[in-house]
Structure formats: structure tokens, C-alpha cells
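Journal club prep — side note

Before the paper discussion, L.F. wants everyone to see what a predicted structure for a comparable chain looks like in C-alpha cell form. Sequence:
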Amino acid sequence: MMTLWRVSVRIFALLATLTLAQAQAPEPREALVIGNADYSFGPLRNPLNDAEAMAKALDQAGFDVTVETDANHASMEKAIQAFGAKLKAKGGVGLFYFSGHGAQISGENYLLPARDQIADFDDIKTRSLTATEIVDAMATAHNDLNIVILDACRNNPIDPNGAHGLSRIDSNASLFVSYATSPGAVALDGSGHNSPYTKYLAQSISVPNLTIEDTFKRTLKGVYVDTHGEQTPWISSTFFGDFVFHPTGAAPETSPPDANPKPQGDEIATLRPPTPSAAPAAIELGGVYRVAGTNPSGSEYHGMVALRQQDDQFNLTWWIGKDVFHGTGHFAGKMLVVNWGDKDPVIYTFGDDGALDGEWADGSAKETLEPVATVAAAEVAPPQGRYKVEGTSGDGSSYTGTVTITEQGNAYQLSWKVGDSNYRGKGTLDGNLLTVEWGSATPVIYALAEDGSLTGLWDAGHGEETLTPDE
């Protein structure tokens, strides 16, 4: 029989903390937590423990929590309808958490009920709760913020050779979505008392005064280290507001939760996550950056980066000396998470000066992207004609000259005259970023501004140059 229960604080010592958190929480907070483990086709060991851990952490953070365990389809549908009605009546912040089996079919995410007979894809489609239903039930409340947390990316035993993990849910300014692992990947149920994801998420939520981004940043790092890089949580959000899970008014703790593995646990225990600054509702990051960083070995590096933005998706190209690296990134609230090959993802926070302060997920390396020039946010006329040149070489000496830019099909021909020297190059324009190969080991990368000027870097970031239309 289904167990439906209201979570209350069971330990007297936590009453003071709970009262303080609820008193200082500036908005109503409602949470629905579902943990399903009793599957005939593939029982799981941790979802009931996960639901209990999350309910306790959210209760302490001032949420009014409803918990369903081993819920069948009818109970899940009833719970989500009641949850949506409460959000509509109260407003504030809504949070939905699910731990159990999940599956994606044709791009839709299905959260599988417990105890119901699920034998094939048709059963999944007709007897499961969809992510769309959850998001719609929360969105119709028109409340301030909705958080969807899915620890449901385990492999589906019904079709082990089919699609793995879950598909991405498109977020918006009032929706924050977090997965236990990247879309299309498989999360671990865990050999301990909780799944790796829920273990670190519950710990992070319980830390006083952490912003939502720092909460999930700590979770990402903890899971990444604990699973030795096998699992990387994913966040999808363009929410740039301020939300703190466990406000007390005091300064936040600086040390993230401990990780059990050694020596990685020692590394993560010494990390000091930066305090995120406020970011505008629509932030534009596309442009040219200088990069300075520290490798895991401790050695330092410098270079330049071209960052192209399309909505909330990003493409980055690094030139570090003669080496070239490529990465793709996405917004995670007030963070930018960038994956580049098989290496650790880099998590960037936004500095007050426009810089991007990055740290590898395992805490072993850091880098800062310093903005040199931003591209025009809208489409502008392509570069063409004669320009004045002002630049600085890597040795600090300045130079002036002219350059002529000629559009030839999809390419651009550049002819410089600087003093007695002449140079030629061929460039490509991509999202108001002009990359020009000119015979050197690294190209010139320019950001095209709204006024038609181009500012860029060359010599792997050691040189800088500005082109101004010569009218």
C-alpha cells in the first residue's frame, strides 16, 4: 500500500535550525519528493534512502515537503496535481525531486512508477509520469522559481541497448533543472546509503547561505570526484535571480562537503568556491578573451580564447601557445559549464569586472578569461573596406598602419601595411567573430562591434590590435 506522509523534524536538536530557516526564508516553499525503488524489472537499492535524505535537507531549508515512496502511476499523478495546486495557491518556490528509474522515448522523459507492471515501451508511455507534466503543473502556478531535480538517469533494464539516460529539458528564466548526470548518460545508484548525486546534493543544500548555483556547483564537484569522473551532473537554467536554500543571515561556509575517495577527497575539501556576483537577466559573453591558468601540475599557461554565443549555448576555442582546444558550454544559472573533449569540465562564475573565473570539476586546475572585446549582440554589416590599424606587439611596442578587407564568397581577404612591412591573411566570420590565418602559428581573432570596428588578439594573446573604419 502507498505510503504518503508529511515530513516533520524528528530530532529536537534541529528545531532551532528549522525555525530560523523558515523565519528567514523570504517566500513560501513547497516541495514534492518521490523515491521509487520497488521495480519488478530492476529493483534499486537507494531511492527510498535518497528521498529521506532530500526530504530532511529540504525540511531544514524551510520547505513544506510532501514525500511519496514506491508510488504507482495513479499516486504519482495525484501527487503532482496536488503539488501544482499548492504552488498556484501559495506562489513562491516549488521544488520537485525524483529518484528512481527514468527513460527517454523520442525525446520525452518518463519517470517510471513503482509496483506497476512495466514490460515494454507502450507501458512506459501510458503508465509513467512525464517531465512535461511536471513542468506544466509547476509553470501554470506562475510562481517565482521552480526547481526540477531528476536523479533518474539509471540504465533502463527494459531496453539495455536503447537510449540511455534522459533528454534535456529546455529551461527558462523561472525554471532551474538539474540532472544526476549529463543528458544521454547513465547515473550510478551507488553502493553506499545514497546515490552519489543525492549524497552531495543533500549535503550542499544543508550548508547555510549557499546560493543555488554554489549548491549545485558543490554537488557537481563532489559527484565528479566520488565517481572518478564517470558521472558529471548537468544543470540547465537561465535563472539569474538570487535564491538561497538555507538562509541564516550569516556568512556562508567556505569548505565544500568532504568526498570519501582518496586522494581526490583531500583536493575537493580544500576548494574555495568564489561568491557569484549578480548577473543580468540576459547576459552576453561572446567575444575575445585573454586566458591565464594553472595546470594540474602547477605550471602556468597563457593564451587567447574566442567565445561564440548563440542564446544559452557556447562554443569556445583556446589558443595556448601552439596548441588549439575546443569546447562547448551552457548556462547553469549564474555559471557557465564548459565541456572540452575527455577532460574535466570547467565551471566558470561571472566576476564583477566581466571576467570568467573557471575551475576544473575535480578542483585540480583553474583559469581566468579576461575580456578584451565583446562582439555586437545583433547582426551587423560584415567588415569591408579600408581600416586604420593600431596595435601592440608582444614586447610592448606599439604600431600603426592600415588594412584593407575584401569579402570573397564566404571568406575575407586582409592586406595590412604596417610601416615598411606588408602582410596578407584569409579570414572566416562566425557570429561576429573574425578569425584570420596570416602565416603565423596562431591566427588573429577579432570581435566585430556594433560600430563596425574590430578588436582582437594575435600571437596567442601576446599582441592586441584594433581596426577602425577609415571613412
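L.F.'s comment for the group: The two ends are 80 Å apart (CA to CA). Keep this in mind when we get to the figures.
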